[in-house]
Task: inverse folding
């Protein structure tokens, strides 16, 4: 993986998308709406950032431990944050930097850790589906999106649960130049993937994934309260938010950039918010749910010397 190149692509994409959003929305109007933010809610909103990151860490650490890999807390948490920051790279391939960091510091082969990063992405999808089901009856568009995703996740699960199919898929993926390094890490570590998607691992990892999405939904609810919006109920908000995330996942863009913002803005206006307020809300939502955490992750990248890792196995 060319880390600096992927980062550059991700950052440029973000700048372009947000510039377009602000131009379309009228920057002056957005800034005017932003002044309505009630800072009394800020401490509560910020509290959810370390809480959500801790849940992701518990899941990551559990999957490592489940495969017999034990890493000291401080090092492991910085490694997790480093990978989280690199979620802005195309296809979130940057998250595999965690494998190289573990290899460099603890001598553990990427063949043992790459499948765990793959399992994380699988459980992200599982968690968002289950979380969406809590409020699917309150948001009609989710009824069309969630079944499609359930089918997709079922296909993915079947594919990673059947060694022959899994190996065949990897061979096809390996023919794509920028995915070759990723695909080469997995065939010899199928047992790790199988262990990460069986028995108690499924229950615990899925529960933690659901917790992460629910925490984010609660955080967004308080962001809306900070703008004086209480017309959208919590159980309506959950599928509204998760559906936009799901559509972002389908786009295969870094963090679903542009797709998440556009669809979430559309959904909020569907619920009766004026366009300028909906746009401002979405910008604040993305800042608090993603960009602050990613910024923290960049600090972790520096602390772990991630920019200077060499890709040796």
Result:
């Amino acid at each position: 993986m060319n880390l600096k190149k992927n980062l550059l692509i991700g950052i440029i994409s973000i700048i372009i998308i947000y510039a377009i959003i602000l131009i379309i929305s009228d920057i002056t109007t957005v800034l005017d709406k932003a002044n309505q933010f009630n800072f009394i809610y800020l401490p509560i909103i910020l509290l959810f950032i370390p809480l959500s990151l801790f849940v992701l860490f518990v899941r990551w650490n559990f999957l490592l431990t489940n495969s017999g890999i034990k890493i000291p807390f401080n090092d492991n948490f910085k490694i997790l944050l480093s990978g989280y920051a690199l979620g802005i790279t195309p296809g979130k391939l940057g998250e595999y930097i965690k494998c190289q960091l573990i290899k460099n510091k603890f001598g553990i082969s990427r063949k043992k850790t790459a499948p765990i990063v793959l399992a994380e992405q699988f459980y992200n999808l599982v968690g968002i589906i289950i979380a969406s089901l809590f409020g699917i009856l309150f948001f009609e568009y989710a009824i069309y999106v969630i079944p499609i995703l359930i089918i997709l996740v079922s296909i993915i699960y079947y594919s990673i649960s059947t060694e022959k199919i899994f190996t065949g898929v990897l061979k096809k993926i390996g023919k794509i130049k920028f995915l070759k390094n990723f695909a080469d890490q997995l065939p010899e570590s199928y047992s790790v993937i199988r262990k990460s998607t069986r028995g108690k691992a499924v229950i615990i990892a899925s529960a933690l994934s659901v917790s992460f999405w629910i925490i984010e939904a609660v955080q967004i609810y308080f962001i809306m309260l900070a703008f004086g919006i209480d017309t959208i109920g919590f159980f309506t908000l959950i599928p509204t938010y998760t559906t936009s995330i799901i559509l972002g996942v389908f786009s295969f863009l870094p963090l679903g950039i542009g797709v998440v913002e556009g669809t979430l803005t559309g959904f909020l206006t569907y619920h009766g918010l004026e366009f300028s307020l909906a746009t401002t809300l979405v910008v604040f939502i993305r800042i608090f749910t993603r960009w602050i955490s990613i910024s923290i992750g960049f600090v972790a990248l520096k602390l772990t010397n991630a920019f200077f890792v060499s890709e040796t196995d």
Observations:
- The chain has one domain: 3-11+41-308.
- The mean pLDDT is 81.
- The first helix runs from residue 3 to 25.
